[in-house]
Amino acid sequence: MNWTVIIIEAIVLTIAFTAMILIPLVKNPVWWIADYPEDIQEEYFKTHERIPTKFFSGAVLWKKGFALVVALALLLVVVKLAGAYDFWSAFLLSYGLWLFIDWYDCFFLDWVLFANMRKVRLPGTEHMDEAYHQKKYHFVQSLWGMLIGLIPCLVGAGIYAWLFC
Fold first, then answer.
1. Half-sphere exposure of 42 (CA within 13 A, CB side)
2. How confident is the model at residue 71 (pLDDT cuts 50, 70, 90)?
3. % helix / strand / coil in the chain, to the nearest 5?
4. Three-class secondary structure assignment of 23-51
5. Rounded CA separation 60/44 (Å)
6. Which of 63, 151, 143 is nearest to 103 (CA)?
7. Contact, 165 vs 92, CB < 8 A?
8. How far apart are CA 93 and CA 157, in angstroms?
9. Confidence at 32, pLDDT banded by 50, 70, 90
10. How many domains does the chain have?
11. Degrees (nearest 5) of the Cα angle 118, 125, 113?
C-alpha cells in the first residue's frame, strides 16, 4: 500500500467530514440535534417544538443510514487508490481511516471546536457552557462510532475483495 496516498486520503477525508458536519451545523444547529447531549436537547425543547432525536427514529436513522452509505462508497474508493491487496488490508486501511476521523471528531470537533463555538449552539442553550464541554458524553459517542464503523468497513472490505482480488 502507498502511505503517501493514505496520508493524503486522511487529510482529504478530514476536510470533507468537517465540511459535511460544519456547514449544516452553522446554517441550522437543529439539523444535528440528535448528536447533542440530552440535557442540551431538553433545554432547547422547553422553548421549541419537540422533534424526533432518538437513534431509532426515522429522521435520525435516515441521516445516519445515508452517512453510512456515503462512508461505504468513500471507503471503497480510498482502499482502491491506496492499493489494498486483499480483504484484510482493505479492512485495516478503511477501519484505520474510520478511527482517525472518529477520534478527530471526538477530540477536536466535539471537545475543542464545538464546545467553544457559540454559532453552533442551539437557540436558548447559549448559556450552557458546562453542558457543551461534556467530554465523557462525546467520548462514549466516539466509542459507539468505533463500533458502528465496523459495519461499513467490513462490508466495504468484502465488496473490495470480491471485486478486485
1. 4
2. confident
3. 80, 0, 20
4. HHHHHCHHHHHHHCCHHHHHHHHCCCCCC
5. 17
6. 143
7. no
8. 9
9. confident
10. 1
11. 30
Q: Is 83 left (phi over 0), alpha (psi -120 to 50) or beta?
A: left
- Say if CB 14 and CB 101 are below 8 A apart: yes
Q: What are 108-135's pLDDT values in tens digits? A: 999 999 999 998 999 999 999 999 999 9
Whether the model clears a pTM of 0.85, i.e. scores above it, the answer is yes
Cα dihedral sign, 146-106-36-43: positive
Scan for cell 452517512, then name that residue: 67
116 lies in which domain range? 3-164
DSSP conformation class of 118: G
Rounded-to-integer distance, Cα 121 and Cα 36, Å: 9
How far does CA 72 lie from the centroid of its chain? 13
